[in-house]
Amino acid sequence: MSLLQAVKYQRGKLEVLDQLLLPHEFHYDTVSTRQEAFDSIATMRVRGAPAIAIVASLGLAVELHNNPVSGTSDEQVISQIDEALDYLKQSRPTAVDLTNAITQLKATIRTADGKGKEAIVQAFIEEAERIFEKDLQSNLSIGDFGAQWLQAQAGASPDQKISVLTHCNTGALATSGHGTALGIIRTLQSKGYLKHAFCTETRPYNQGSRLTAFELVHEGIPSTLITDSMAAALFRTKKAENNIAAVIVGADRVVRNGDTANKIGTYQLSVLAKHHGIKFIVAAPTTSIDLETKTGDGIKIEERKREELTQISGAVVGPDGRVDGNNKVRVATADQRIDVWNPAFDVTPAEFIDVVVTEKGAVEKGPDGTFDFSKILPKRWAKVVG
Ligand SMILES: CSC[C@@H](O)[C@@H](O)C(=O)COP(=O)(O)O
């Protein structure tokens, strides 16, 4: 089985899989400049909170590797890199991984201040590469902690397999590999704990049907696709038969009290899960945690263009039922004059979340109903909260 990779990188060269063409066509774009990185992210050719941060960081690393910076003093070079990072930060607003990566990159280049411009650039490139490599390790740990938590809380085991529902895409395509929520599902499968994975279509951008369904099939994980509107009926009619124990989702931003921004539709799933006695798990690396924002009310939710709701693209299906991946079409699915509201994310309040699984462990709610991240992030906590 070939490995799914959203990003292929070697020093000086970055290739990014165009996810808009999936699952019908595999095409990698070369990304060599900050503008190309920005464009890949803003047009959603690459998407998913960790992958966005990785492409922005490595895209600029490639630009700096191949094109000497013009500044002469260390101060000038640092300010030019800062400017490029601030530009990249504008590519998409809701996921915090990019902001956290930028903070980390800015701090790292300052450790080379006074050592000359090559040292500053080198420090940047090495830090960007570390962000990429560390993400994979984080995903694998999230998978282990998530499976352990489900073993303890839902009795998941080879003798008592569980089923789960996931939303959006959080797999290898949204990260450096393995995935977060989908990473837990992969780990459950490898341990023999998984009965079945259900995935939502994830309207309007269809990350679930285009990407997650593709990843699940690719991995040979027993799985079923549903539309977003079928979740309640699924829980009501198929929970017992399938032993549906958890909804597992990723995160674009988990704020200080645990409120979590994730793909639109996540919030309604959390309400349904509570109603049906199903655990609700947020799987997120600590790079997706934002301690500076106190509650979900402070999260900026990206609104996207109307055509994402009123039009859809895909590949032509022939009369024999075969999909012709080379023959793409874009079709209208609504009266093009209708007014549209298209928020890309929503906020799930902490009260509906049972656990936030990070690479540093599973964090459960305290008696006050909020999450306390001070134990897993003591330094960041001290900086922000004191
Ligand atoms: C590990 S990816 C976590 C989230 O980024 C994911 O669930 C999600 O909401 C992605 O949204 P997208 O708009 O496709 O970037």
UniProtKB/TrEMBL annotation:
It catalyses: 5-(methylsulfanyl)-alpha-D-ribose 1-phosphate = 5-(methylsulfanyl)-D-ribulose 1-phosphate. Pathway: Amino-acid biosynthesis; L-methionine biosynthesis via salvage pathway; L-methionine from S-methyl-5-thio-alpha-D-ribose 1-phosphate: step 1/6. It is found in: Cytoplasm; Nucleus. GO terms for molecular function: S-methyl-5-thioribose-1-phosphate isomerase activity. One of its GO terms (cellular component) is nucleus. The active site is at D252 (proton donor). The record marks C168 as: Transition state stabilizer. It comes from the Eukaryota. GO terms for biological process: L-methionine salvage from methylthioadenosine. Its main location: cytoplasm. Its EC number is 5.3.1.23. Transmembrane segments: none annotated. Keywords: Amino-acid biosynthesis, Cytoplasm, Isomerase, Methionine biosynthesis, Nucleus. Pfam families: IF-2B. It is an enzyme of class 5 (isomerase). InterPro entries: IF-2B-related, IF-M1Pi, IF_2B-like_C, Initiation_fac_2B_a/b/d, M1Pi_N, NagB/RpiA_transferase-like. Catalyzes the interconversion of methylthioribose-1-phosphate (MTR-1-P) into methylthioribulose-1-phosphate (MTRu-1-P). Belongs to the eIF-2B alpha/beta/delta subunits family. MtnA subfamily. This is Methylthioribose-1-phosphate isomerase. The gene is MRI1.
